[in-house]
From TrEMBL:
It comes from Cynoglossus semilaevis (Tongue sole). Transmembrane segments: none annotated. InterPro entries: Epimerase_deHydtase, NAD(P)-bd_dom_sf, NAD(P)_epim/dehydratase. It catalyses: L-threonine + NAD(+) = (2S)-2-amino-3-oxobutanoate + NADH + H(+). Residues 3-229 form the NAD-dependent epimerase/dehydratase domain. SUPFAM superfamilies: NAD(P)-binding Rossmann-fold domains (SSF51735). This is L-threonine 3-dehydrogenase, mitochondrial.
Amino acid sequence: GLGQLGVGLAQLLRRQYGKDNVILSDIKKPQPQVANSPFVYADVLDYKHLREVIVNNGITWLVHYSALLSAVGEANVALARKINITLHNVFDLSLENCLRLFVPSTIGAFGPSSPRDPAPDLCIQRPRTIYGVSKVHGELMGEYLHHKYGLDFRCLRYPGVISVNTTPGGGTTYAVQIFHDALSTGQHECYLRPDTRLPMMHISDCHRATVEFMQTSECQLSLRTYNIAAMSFTPEEVAQEIRKHLPHLKVTYKTDSVRQTIDSWPVRFDDTNARRDWGWEPTFGLEKLVTDMLQSVRIKRTNEGLPVS
Ligand SMILES: NC(=O)C1=CN([C@@H]2O[C@H](COP(=O)(O)OP(=O)(O)OC[C@H]3O[C@@H](n4cnc5c(N)ncnc54)[C@H](O)[C@@H]3O)[C@@H](O)[C@H]2O)C=CC1
Ligand SMILES: CC(=O)[C@H](N)C(=O)O
């Protein structure tokens, strides 16, 4: 829970359900701002200890965020396979303890043979990264256990998520780093080609979608795995939008062959089913995202004593 997405989701859930009713867990030490709220050490590979945490704390909902993301996973396939597929622990414990279970998937769960513009919820999925393969495995296992044993499994396929916190794990993180570079050196070296179009989402839309989806009554769900969309852009387009605020921004392109394999990810998501079944609607488009990110990154860098131009 201490990665890019977990802390913010816990904050949103705590506002609705009370601070003590949401427990964050991870294998690393919590940041100071998290340290005053419930936190437990939990390694998802340790079945017995996970069971102890669930039983001792009367857990009812499990949000399973731990994973190795695309680029980090590709750099360490054995570890990605271990962490991302040991999701079985979480499935078994959810069934054993009648938990409801949310596990995110990703645009990376699609591959070169999938329809890309747009990618529907149900289509061919033959991803070519260990990250994508493990996420498809999670989607299918969760749906299987739902149909066979009634597990309340829920899964959203997130686009690349944009927030002030940069995480090194993903193929889409250029779209976070570019804001920091624009506000510091004014120069960004992008590891993707300028025309690589990908679905993206502001973190607040991602958190809100997750909570709204978790709160939807089961009878409204026609699927267990839904695409959610907000916007799609290329590195060149986001740079152009940033230049409306910071005209001096220079972007150079040095393609990284591993990350550029995300060429096979969808260009756009079709999220018609999420909109119809549980009322999903994004609030951030590219223009609003860029304005918000420049403001938030400026505040963060200033507070941390980092250079801001
Ligand atoms: N950030 C994004 O753009 C997207 C994220 N997602 C999914 O959302 C979820 C959360 O993503 P992020 O927060 O961005 O990931 P992240 O890489 O920032 O955080 C993952 C967390 O998992 C923890 N972890 C690693 N091994 C562990 C273990 N053995 N036991 C317990 N915790 C362990 C790490 O310490 C880290 O804090 C992931 O499942 C990811 O696939 C899906 C699509 C987009
Ligand atoms: C889209 C994702 O799942 C993530 N941001 C990544 O690039 O790996």
